[in-house]
Amino acid sequence: MAVPVDNLTKPTPASSTLRFAFGNVLAFFILLLIGVLAFSIRLFSVIKYESVIHEFDPYFNYRVTQFLTKNGIYDFWNWFDDRTWYPLGRVIGGTVYPGLTLTAGTIWKVLQSLNIPLSVETVCVFTAPVFSAFAAWATYLLTKEVKGTGAGLTAAVLLAMVPSYISRSVAGSYDNEAVAIFALIFTFYLYIKTLNTGSLFYATLNSIAYFYMVCSWGGYTFIINLIPMHVLLCIVTGRYSSRLYIAYAPLVVLGTLLAALVPVVGFNAVMTSEHFASFLVFIVIHVVALAYYIKGILSPKMFKVAATLVVSVGVVVCCAVVAVLVAVVASSPTKGWSGRSLSLLDPTYASKYIPIIASVSEHQPPTWPSYFMDLNVLAFLVPAGIIACFAPLSDASSFVILYLVMSVYFSGVMVRLMLVLAPAACIMSGIALSEAFDVFTRSIKFYISNLSEFLQTDAGDTLPGNNVSPQNEVLKNEKKEDTLKERPSRKNKKKEKENIEKPYVKSKTEKRPLVLPVEASFFALFLTVLLGGFYVVHSVWAAAEAYSAPSIVLTSHSHDGLHVFDDFREAYAWLSHNTEVDDKVASWWDYGYQTTAMANRTVIVDNNTWNNTHIATVGTAMSSPEKAGWEIFNSLDVKYVLVVFGGLVGYPSDDINKFLWMVRIGGGVFPHIKEPDYLRDGQYRIDSQATPTMLNSLMYKLSYFRFVETDGGKGYDRVRRTEIGKKYFKLTHFEEVFTTHHWMVRIYKLKPQKNRIRGKTKKSKSKTSPTTPRSGTVKKNPWH
Fold first, then answer.
1. Per-residue confidence (pLDDT) for residue 622, from 0 to 100
2. CA distances from residue 258 to 104, 204, 207, 267, 742 in whole angstroms, order as listed
3. Neighbours of 2 (CB within 10 A)
4. pLDDT tens-place string over residues 378-433
């Protein structure tokens, strides 16, 4: 008789403890390597280019951090910036999410106290890679609470390399998302931890983590709506517990009070519709908690009466709260929602009512290839992770499923929110891969154990009868002792079999793990490793090529080698060295932050986009004829106008391609600007078929002035791939003062108003006054 291998090799408690300790140490070193991987894969931008701030918004954050480290926290809260949004200005302390700035400023202070002389710019450049490592570790903690250590390690290494997160956290990407994704994942981890343990300590930490998220990014509303949805889901499905109450109630009370301390949020934490769902669920969970408490102290008959009373009172209270909320919401034209929130709930809202939001490329819906670009193989592993979360379904796994579903929807509305989907996809894929590896390795171990058992059995059969192993001898002796103790009758044997053996067999068949054939296990394991290899190669390519190039410095490869286009910094340096300190520079709002930070000049509009009318004024000036545009800019004390032009080198993100958004935004405030006037049969053209309104607009003239001199009179636009319609013209109210080496940035100066000759003016008036009245030709307001 063969003896099972498991019975012979059962681990002792000491060996189990040693194995557990070794596993923890190994997991710790793996996490260290994952952090190094997350940090190093984001350094391609520094290695290939230089240590420089990327994009547009990071330049504002860098400028604010410089001010904070130089002047201190109190001056930062009270800082009124008169170099932006002239002549309105901007209160920085009350209109910015301070989490990123305070984090980088604190890191710089700590480094200075340790005599590590790093500049503020260097700290800002490397803040995002450092926090990407923190985000990977937070993902490990969150996934570990859901499905164990193996799934946590797998999800962490996936997040460290996911291209969607890399795109917003490369070295130099000093934006709010650099620290906000870590805060988002860590808040979710503490919520799940509180849900699993029922600890008030973790609930308090959860509120503090939520407060840090509120300080860091406006996407905190995703948290304060997702967690109430999960709480309501648990209540509806009958999974209410005291742990659920402890996880949610302190978050609403303490988290809301802390959120109201952030100046940019303030009373919006209790007055806007984005937060109302949390308050309604807060009332519901208290009603449910009261019902469960009454059920525990009353008899079933009395409980029915009390439950009816409690539910009735709860319904009345909820109706009263809903009535108050409806009254508050009805007084707002947007029903208490912000424009960006409405554009998420209704994807067509921004294009209909707020073109300034729709004009941002990050706010456009993604295409299907972008999912594969940003998630790669994770897009195919997510469904398997969902299935694994249902076996078995717990409060933690249901929260992860809900997180995935909501993030998939929001990423489908706005491509920027693909960043929120990335952690959920990594968690689900980590769970799927961990479960798959568990099945494959268990199947291989089962095959090896069976093989060794077969070999032992075969060896025992070939031995002589007198050579019996000590283990078999002990087993035989034990069996004899058992049979001598009691010899039950056949009836007793039958009863024992029915009462004991059948339930044992049933539980054994129910809990038996899935075992695959060994050939299939080896093949599936090979395919899984190959799939992981493809993911690594794609992620490294995305980090090195697709997302490492800073927008401030552009490169291109051609047959004659690498070309570097440093026109933006060239133009800002010219403004800094050749203009007066108090000169005002007008440009489209995309370049406002860079102009203020790099040229140190006052701008009319910038990337904050808080005042739609001011931006529409600039759009109207660019859309108007030269004289009308000059009058608008002159009324704003503008001295220089900056335009970005890519027709010579093929740079597609220039102002001509953005011009229709200027027309739409300007026309939304000033009705005399009409988009059809700039289109020929519904098509946007700049060639000979373009409309006269388009050819005479200020943007067209400032972009294509002297353009024909670059290619011998053809005037071929490499972006639009056509010859321009109006090639030879002169500027009467603007003069060109600087054009960069590759013609990507062009700067014009407003000509001063000509001196009026009193005699000629009177003579012309006397001649024209009898025939045509002049009162209607002179406009007091140049914007109409």
1. 95
2. 21, 12, 8, 11, 50
3. 12
4. 999 999 999 999 988 999 999 999 999 999 998 988 888 899 999 999 999 999 99
**In the prediction, which pLDDT does 461 show?**
57
Residue 129 CB contacts under 8 Å (≥ 6 apart), including other chains:
38, 39, 40, 42, 43, 169, 170, 171
Provide the β-strand partners of residue 723. 716
Residues (pLDDT < 50) of the chain are 1-9, 465-491, 493-510, 761-779, 782-784
CA neighbours within 13 Å on the CB side: how many for 668? 22
pLDDT of residue 771: 43
* Single-letter amino acid, residue 110: V
Task: Tell the residue number behind the tokens 């894929």, with chain if given.
Answer: 429
Q: Report the distance separating Cα 44 and Cα 548, nearest Å.
A: 6
Instruction: State the distance between the two ends of the chain, measured CA to CA, in whole angstroms.
Output: 101
Angle made by CA atoms 188, 191, 192, in degrees to the nearest 5: 90
Measuring CA to CA, which residue among 27, 159, 108 is closest to residue 429?
A: 159
Q: What is the pLDDT of residue 757?
A: 63
Tokens of 231: 């709480």
Per residue in 599-643, pLDDT tens?
999 999 998 888 889 999 999 999 999 999 999 999 999 999 999
Closest C-alpha among 543, 359, 501, 514 to residue 443: 514
For residue 537 the two structure tokens come to 């190669």
- In b/e form, how buried is each residue of 342-365, taking b as 16+ CB within 10 angstroms? bbbeebebbbeebbbbbbbeebbe
In this predicted structure, what is the pLDDT of residue 153? 95
Extract the tokens encoding 617: 């004024």
Percent of residues in the chain assigned helix, strand, coil, to nearest 5 = 65, 5, 30
Contact between 123 and 109 (Cβ < 8 Å): no
- Measured between alpha carbons, how far is residue 287 from residues 227, 312, 318, 326, 428 in Å? 18, 10, 10, 21, 34
- Chain-wide mean pLDDT for the chain? 84
How many residues are there in the chain? 784
What is the pLDDT at residue 586?
95
- Report d(CA 667, CA 620) in Å as an integer: 7
Q: Which amino acid is at 66?
A: Q
DSSP annotation of 604: S
Tell me whether strands 722-723 and 602-603 are parallel, antiparallel or unpaired. Answer: unpaired
pLDDT of residue 495: 46
Cα separation, 739 vs 743, in Å, equals 6
377 Cβ contact list (under 8 Å, min separation 6): 429, 531, 532, 534, 535
Its pTM stands at 0.85
State CA 245 to chain mean position distance: 29
**Strand partners for 564:** 555
